[in-house]
Amino acid sequence: MKVLIACEESQAVTKEFRKLGHEAYSCDILDCSGGHPEWHLKKDLLKVIKDKWDLIIAFPPCTYLTVTGNAWFNIKKYGDKAI
Predict the structure, then answer these.
(1) Measured between alpha carbons, how far is 23 from 2 in angstroms, rounded to an integer?
(2) What is the pLDDT of residues 30-40, one digit of tens each?
(3) Higher-scoring residue by pLDDT: 7, 81
(4) Helix, strand, or coil (residue 3)
(5) Is 64 helix (H, G, I), strand (E, B) or coil?
(6) CB atoms within 10 A of CB 48
(7) CB atoms < 10 A from the CB of 8, how many?
(8) Closest CA relative to residue 51, chosen from 31, 23, 29
(9) Staple 40 to which of 20, 32, 63, 82, CB 3.0 to 4.6 Å?
(10) Does the pLDDT value for residue 43 go beyond 70?
């Protein structure tokens, strides 16, 4: 199975899929830290998502994906971290 693990620079999940015999690739805009650059696509996900994949798993940064925690983004209390 051809697998894309999106938003993963660590390659932790990619390596597990490889151990199971799948053709797995990590994809992130950052360099990979998992030790297998030959399995890493250092590209914007939107540029590779249109390729043929049997399975796509994505781990986007969750900091700004929902509005449920917005009450905690207090600029006076957290400064630049709240922006």
Answers:
(1) 5
(2) 999 999 999 99
(3) 7
(4) strand
(5) coil
(6) 15
(7) 22
(8) 23
(9) 32
(10) yes
